[in-house]
Amino acid sequence: MYLQKMDKKKHDSFKVAEIIYEADSETFDFFFGNKKNASQKIGILVQKGDNNLGYQQIYVVTNDQEIVGVMVYSAGEKMGNIQELKVLFHNFNILDSLRFIMIEIIDNIFLSRLEEDDFYYAIVAVDENSRGQGIGSFILEEGIKLAREKGCRRAVLDVDIENEGALRLYQRVGFMKFKEKSLSLLGWKKGAFNMEYLL
Length: 199
Hints:
Blueprint: E1 2-5, H1 13-23, H2 25-32, H3 35-48, E2 58-63, E3 66-75, H4 81-91, H5 94-110, E4 118-126, H6 135-149, E5 154-160, H7 164-173, E6 176-185, E7 188-198
Parallel strand pairs: 4-5
Antiparallel strand pairs: 1-2, 2-3, 3-4, 5-7, 6-7
Helix pairs in contact: 1-3, 2-5, 4-5
């Protein structure tokens, strides 16, 4: 297994997008209807770059030339809101742009507040056909090495409260909960644990 920075000329943006979709399929389905439609839209963001899902923010895990995992990260500041909006409105119609903006707004309610010296795992995702092979642990451990190389103080990630499998994995690697955020509205409930690994 190898973790390498995504090269949009070498790595398949659509395959990367499908794996990213798997990390939060429920949300993407709510806004875009199905896996194929959502993955195509995500793939455009991956390919175009200069946004929070752009290839510049992605490492891929390959196994015999096949992409089996994805890490979307940020170290320090996130992409600026103006830049993000430019990419959305330049590449999508108004409705799809607003859908991505709504996802960002919802994420901002639940996700960790970051410091400048944080390494943030925005997405840790494994291809559904490659799960159970230690790829998730590998991504987390390699991310910790990258965070140390970048001089970060801590590695941070968020996990859905209901995702017990991911929570166990993160705790096994050494991440600790530092905050819980949840919201209930008319029978709908969503929540996340904010987790950190001190470097």
